[in-house]
Amino acid sequence: MLFNSLAFLIFLPIVFSCYWFLLQKQLRYQNILILGASYVFYGWWDWRFLSLIIFSTIVDYSVAKAMHKATSDSKRKYFLYISLAINLGLLGFFKYFNFFIESWVDLSQSIGLRANISTLSIILPVGISFYTFQTLSYTIDVYRRKIEPETDIIKFSAFVAFFPQLVAGPIERASNLLPQFSLKRTFSYEKAVSGVQLILWGLFKKVVIADSCATYVNIIFENSENYNSSTLILGAIFFAFQIYGDFSGYSDIAIGVARLFGFDLMTNFKKPYFSRDIAEFWRRWHISLSTWFRDYVYIPLGGSKGSLGIKIRNVFIIFLVSGFWHGANLTFIFWGLLNALFFIPLLLLNKNRSNTNTVAENHVFPSLYELYQVVSTFIIVTFAWIFFRAENLKAAFTYLQHIFEWTTDKITYGWNLEILILLILFIVIEWVTRTKETLQLQNPYFRWIYYIGITQLILFYGAKNNVVDFIYFQF
Amino acid sequence: MKQFLKKITLFGIVFIVVNALIFVSLQRESFGLVTENNRTSFIENQVHTPKIIISGGSNVGYSLDSELLSKNLQQEVYNVSFSISHDYEYVLNYIASSLKKNDTFLYIPEYDQYYINNENTMSDALCVSIYNKPSTFQYLNFQQKINFLTKVPKLNILLLYKNLKHLVSNKTIMLKTDNRGDYVTHLEQSATWKKSAITRYEKYKYDHKLSNQFKNALLKAQKIAESNGAIFYISYPSIAQSQYDERFSKDLKKFYKNSGLKLIGQPETYIFSDDLIFDHPYHLTKEGRKKRTQFLTKDIQKGFTQK
Known about the structure:
The complex is a heterodimer.
Chain A: H1 6-22, H2 27-46, H3 50-69, H4 73-110, H5 128-143, H6 153-161, H7 174-177, H8 189-222, H9 229-260, H10 278-284, H11 287-298, H12 308-326, H13 330-348, H14 368-389, H15 393-403, H16 417-432, H17 444-464
Chain B: H1 2-24, H2 34-44, E1 51-56, H3 58-62, H4 66-73, E2 76-79, H5 88-98, E3 104-108, H6 124-132, H7 142-168, H8 200-203, H9 212-227, E4 231-234, E5 239-240, H10 246-256, E6 262-263, E7 271-272, H11 286-305
Parallel strand pairs in B: 1-2, 1-3, 3-4, 4-6, 5-7
Helix pairs in contact in B: 4-11, 5-9, 6-7
């Protein structure tokens, strides 16, 4: 079920009403309702894949309990490996099987060997990377004795399948989300209002910004050889806004919907395009994934401790793994590699934590130097996005090659006043709210006009553009 | 909770009231395919009867001189073509049901239509046509009616904003038609068509898979026309030489064999050299259009007298 669909518009009020009116003060039934609603939400795409979530849930629930009862460390480790093998095995099979087979065939052929291995027709279950990482974090935290295992299967299942963040995050930690299923829920007016505001802003980002940019991005990236430099640069910029609007929009809606049910999810984006260097960008972009890799991969590898060589190795590993997490394509790995290369100089100069505050804090406008930093960071991030968006590495390099070709016989496209005005409006609102979640207008009349206006734009662009899936569902 | 529900309800009411106020204060005439709106007036209004109504896809719209045909035949001829994205079942039902006694309905489908199975889908163009003329809702089949109803909210919003856009900009892009419904904008423009390397049959891999639904729609239209005291004929579209394939002719002979449908002309008559094509294999230039009209005149004179 898409957040920007009619089905969800009907689904949400029904679940909300049952949750607060029928089952108020009955925590267990509220959890059962959330679980049932989550399975309906997920099964709307393909009910067959529900079995995967249920299987994953049972495995981690049982493994964590067994781990807790285990008397020796070796047994605990054994149970951890079972969980890792099953979760990563499923992820590997559904997401990376064909990639490895194809890569193996390509490699064999390149050294003159014949390889007749067939690929399989595998459908990628929506959101598998997200819920797999969420359940993995639970098992690892139990192993590390950071949390106690959950004994109530309903609460645990609801934690794994919690519908607002099931298919595209934020990837929640058990230590944050799981205890919330045990807390008595009372309706909070302020929380619900902030939730609705976030939902509207998230829909604006997705439906108005991302989907409008997508129209141009798809045409420009699919026929890059026909377009001139300015169009290709514009195409890359549009994609930067598309992916941000799409993904952060989803996160905002997820956080907003969770608030309607009394839950708090972690912040996933903190205005990343106002970052002054790449390190700051990665502290503000897809925070739930970055911190996951930090806690479960980077720090166990030694993090920023140890020799310079170890530090550099760890940075490369973290970015390459992050790239690979996004998909079974060399483009994502190259995108990760590029980000590592952008990050390394900051690490070497010990400047990777020099911008920990917000840009132009307590000022209306940034200084010229800050502006230069923000723009240059945006440029390198957008450069890397070209690899992320391209069908394959060859297409990405061809795209770049055409950017630097200066010819007059190619087509100019995409310089549309409507989309440019939308983007300027979006940047201004993002800038004004760079330290907050949403625009907080004190004057009630302006506040109403603002939200009515945003709703109008969402409806119009929702009708105008075809409903487009969220990009991050594929990961 | 009460306070929250009150606010949400109030928000919904304000939103609906604002939209309703804007909606009722705007005109809907600028919405949709204006040319098709104009054309339907030929079948809905009491224009000279008996008349000949010619319909089909854009092939009929672009490649026919109804004024010349009218002069040649000494009879009123009107062009009521619809873009191909209008479902054929809808077009045939609509026109056949609107015929008067002694009218003639000449339908000239494009070759592609013989291979399209109606999937009960509603194209945007068809939705807009129904939206503009709700009385034609009856010509949709059941599944299409349901599909259309689900799209009404979307159309309301688009209409609202289209009108708002008109307030700030008078720019309208539309194809002009003459007083008999023929497209005329392209007559003064230069051709952009480039000869194709493969035929249309090859390109779309039709592979002799004719549509039974299309045949049934034609038979139904014939029945409706006859019940109104009108006559229903079918002819062949004009097409670029490089896009024509002999398999079209073979398939169509098989299609019409023992069908009881009245055909006029031969497919080969309407194959035109590529330099007479405007921008699409079914769209003729001014010169091509004139030639086609002369050929059609002869076929009508010959075919209609055989009735």
